[in-house]
Amino acid sequence: MSEQPPVSVIPLLHALASTGGSDLHCKVGSPPRIRVDGRLRKLQVAPLRADDTRNMVAQVLPEDLVAQFRDTHEADFAFSLSGVGRFRVNAYVARGADCLVFRRVAVGAQPMEELGIPTVVSDLALEPRGLVLVTGPTGSGKTTTLASMVDLINTYREVNIITIEDPIEVLHADKKSIISQREVRSDTLDFQNALRGAMRQDPDVIMVGEMRDIETVRAALSAAETGHLVLATLHTVDAQDTINRVVDFFTPHEQQQVRSTLAQTLRGIVSQRLVRRSTGTGRALVCEVMINHGRTAEAIVDPSSQPPIVDLIADGAYYKMQTFDQHLFLLVSDGVVTYEDAMAIASRPQDLTVNLREAGVLA
């Protein structure tokens, strides 16, 4: 009796796309699973064997990353499947076996209004210069928001946009702008080199997929300081954490100067979380938005001179600012998300409960 041939990843990617899932997980000893609306669901496939995942890696891993994967047991890359879509892939080794995670990505950006992004983020995207940061945990939609911001600029401004991504996740076509999308390892060595090169490419807007190290942060701040609009992401949970993270990249003797530079160049921070919709289908975007103005700039330079950043945001309706909990209050009041799900991601659950009761939303 012949041995069962290795499982191919191709039909699994078809299943991911047809179900509207966001991620596909393939690991030995478990059936493949897809993430739909934030929850992992098993596909009707037998538990994967080591030969299955080894075959999947061979199917999708670019030749130039074979040696790296063999040596480091890690590889990040993009994979396109004709008629299905484009995927961001991480291949890794766990307990001696190959594993993969595929993230489905879009061709073309979604409009901000479809994503539920606050309108003030459009204003940030159309700033002529400065630094705008989009933050949140993995899977919170940062890349999708950045793509929408780039698309808005592309639609309304006649400028040169340089993107530096690892990998490219959303493909943009030139509209009013011209866009050069550069993928780390394929088109450039790393973020640092690409940022250095971008300054010689007559850019108006630079989009950095992720600020991962001090040199990238330094180059991004310098580009924002010299009159460019820089859009970038960080894996931070809120505005205060984002400011702390940027400052902490630097040595103690540099930090006060970095605070001053950040206070001058920062235009805003958009922090994101996703929460399940009350209908049970899809997830709603929850945003904290900080717009940098006089008091927030003073708080960045000297945190002891002002109330906590979150309190400045809460009192900043005039500047169209909002905290996570203020946004959750609106979503619960409008029936978009349930009270229970809101509590699971609220920053101050007790305060949110009190506010909902005072407004008559809760009994």
Automatic annotation (TrEMBL):
Gene Ontology molecular function terms on file: ATP binding; ATP hydrolysis activity
Record Pfam families: T2SSE
Top-level taxon: Bacteria
Bacterial type II secretion system protein E domain sequence ranges: 199-213
Entry similarity comment: Belongs to the GSP E family.
Listed NCBIfam families: pilT_fam (TIGR01420)
Record's protein name: Twitching motility protein PilT
Organism expressing this protein natively: Demequina lutea
